[in-house]
Amino acid sequence: MKLMIFAFKTKAASNNNVIFTVIILFSSLTSTRSDTQAVGGRTIIDNKDPSKVPLKNIRNFSIIAHIDHGKSTLADRLLEVTGTLQSDPGNKQVLDRLQVERERGITVKAQTASLFYNHQGEEYLLNLIDTPGHVDFSNEVARSLAACQGVVLLVDATQGVEAQTVANFHLAFYGELTIIPVLNKIDVKNIDVQVAADQLAKLFSFDPSEILKISAKEGTGVEEVLKAVIERVPAPPGDSSAPLRALIFDSWFDKYRGPIALVYIRDGSMTLGDEVMSAHSNMTYTVKSMGILRPQEQPTKQLLKGQVGYLVCNMKSVSEAMIGDTFHLRSVPVTPLPGFKPARPMVYAGVYPMDQSQHNALRGALEKLALNDPSVTVAIESSPALGQGWRVGFLGLLHLEVFNQRLEQEYGADALMTAPSVPYKVKIKGKKNIARFKTDELLISDPSKLPDIDIITEIHEPVVKGSIITPYTYMNSLITLCTERRGSLESTSNLDNTRVSLGVRLPLNEIIVDFHDRVKSLSSGFASFDYEDAGYQISNLVKLEIMLNGEIVDALCSIVHESKAHVAGKNMCEKLKKLIPRQMVPVMIQAAVGAKIVARETINPYRKDVIAKLYGGDVSRKKKLLTKQAEGKKKMKSIAKINIPKDTFLKVLKQ
User: What residues contact residue 170 under an 8 Å CB cut-off, 6+ apart?
Assistant: First the structure.
């Protein structure tokens, strides 16, 4: 403990005595071990040395489940049971550190915590990764599983198996990971736990005896989960004596230390001061600091084979911490680890600063947040209406909303985000056109960039293979919804006596905005929806252009199915009529498909009553004034420029 005393002379009293203000500060010396540390207002206890745990006693596992099945609650109880966190009723979503996660009550970013647990007299190091449950963040789950040898498949006993449960099971199964089935929320009254257990056994061929039944909220059976992880999940593979191979499977940005990488030591070991090299860029770095997460950072001098920890080195740019990269010792080249399949964005949106003076600040915020979320793609674009900006790709609409919210909350960036769209494949004809575009097939994510219809031979739109799990009562309503969204029913299968699984094929453009909400609404919240990429299909699509007094507004263009062009154009024109302020000239709002106008609205101009000053007299005088006014209006209309405030675009695009 270090004692520091500061004395400040404040004023002189009337008796010539000097009054001092004394501030006494106690600060603890930096140490890799301390008895207690605070994280988020809670006390973390019993920090231990991970280097003393043998390789055979290390277990790396993730918790995977459908959204809202209790992953974060189970993670809280595991932290308490292992003594990593003091038991407290206020321990809720401890690993969910982002403000957006706590506000929405969901996990959007996988978080890691290293737990020490004594089992049958031996000390074990359990590296836990709490993963998101929503389909838009499935890339987080896939990357987390690369650092694991087993998973806890958590199922809400009151809901049973749902769509994302099936998707996560297949991720773990094809990754050849040990799967521990766990039924949660058995404390809820009037539920039949056996029904959910039978679903797990039937769908995934689990032995009923290996299905654990717990209540993460009450803590019932949580220790059995830990014991099952130790007994069923194997120790990490690899060779401790082999050269270092460390896989970067996550990263984030710290404003004081720069990029921080989360690594899984596949082979060998990493020591403080080592010179490591990136297998991707061949750049060399010096290891400045490292450690494990408990869940706060606990510095260590070494990371050993099988361990998961953080790494800080002299990276100069956020782009250098590439997810899926392999780090090795500079002096010992190795074969890189397989890495990850790049995430393919499903939804695109334009991101623009509210004012071009904020362009540099928004660019920095985008770069840092993209490091924290590597499934995002960013490309520069410009718009005549909105100025310089970026075209950003996301995995889904919730992903887009969360990204925009994090930009505002974490970086204070006030950005305008355009309406979401999906990427289309466009085949063009003509040797001159192919030479101009340098290809006969274009990938179009911005509707305003769609070529003229005369040179297009066919347009392919992305489609998804969806899975809807619903009670029989709502099956017909959901099939009707899919039909309205240009979908088709491909398969049905019974899960039990009350629920059915529907396999549907849907255009991605039809589900990105409100499809999930409609599924929940029609099923009174009982149905669940999950989807995966199913490639592209030919479709009869057209570009819907919005024109103001004959001038096309690029920011409001969209690509729609021909059968829905009239309705979409009419809705947009009506919306703009309400939002665009009146001008000195009439404003003609038109929705067009090619040369055909499919919808129109007009905003009447302000009009001065020029004959108000007249009383009586010859009518020809009134006609003269009205004619002069009409000529002035005609001249003004030919040279006037419509003034549309930027907040009008914001309101249109966000509705």
Answer: none
